[in-house]
Amino acid sequence: MEKFLDETLKDYQDIGMSQDNLIKLIFLLRDNHTKEMSDIDSNDAKFAVDNKDRICETLRALKKFLIASKLHEYYKSENRSFIPLYFIAYHIFHKQTLTDNLHKLFDTYDTAKWNKWYCNQPSVAGSVLYLDKNASNCGGYRTTALYKNDVSYSVPIAFRTSLKMAGDSGAGADHHFGFVKQNPDWSWGEWAILSQWTNGSAPHYMSVRTRNAYGSQTQEYANYADGNYHIYDGLWLSTSFAGYVDGVLMYTNTQYMPTQALNPTFSNAKPNSGQGNTYVDWFLLRKYEASEPTWST
Description:
This protein is α+β, with helices and mostly antiparallel strands. The chain has two domains: 103 residues, no CATH class; 172 residues, Jelly Rolls, CATH 2.60.120. Helices cover 22% and strands 33% of the residues. It contains six helices and 14 strands.
């Protein structure tokens, strides 16, 4: 046990690991979060020795996460709380992944900024991404579009976002978010998106929309340009695209499904037509599991 502690501390002091933190981590990994340092016993030592490789690979993955998320320098400083890292380490350790593969969990962790916009660059206020409805007109249609042009994703994939759409005097908005492969003015392309939009003089509706080279399918649900944050999910398979608002299924489109890899997108459209601003609090992108877990609040 003493040898394990010494070797591990030497390798992970740069993420704030101390002997006390490592012993507390062992307690937590054993699901004993109330145990005191003075109560360490032979069972703890046996657990640490028997699971040495997995604990070390867990810490290796944790360190990669901190580097990828640009928090490594922060935790190298003294007196940083290790408490948030306990949660991450616990999740990694108990993940249904082979020990030899644990350190690869964050090899593809994406911390790059969204790096492409058409016409006007979005801004960030606090931690919220802000798409301005009053941005200058570009060709009479697209004001602000944000998408990742150097990374595309293929089915099965899912996104989840906390997003607020502000409508002017109940007028609704033209906001689009999800997956798209497009030219700059959206005059053609493929997509699987959720969209708060207007169709001529029709009311503004939240819609589930799919399109490929042969046509498009749009199913309208309800108006959510109410100035409040809602949780939106888009689940994209090769044969269907399902849209959810606050955990409630809107529609599942099965026609005109995209056939190519697409880019994540947020956009605000049709300048000066009465629509409101778009505010994105957070965005989660993940592989769509064959057996989906249940979302929790």
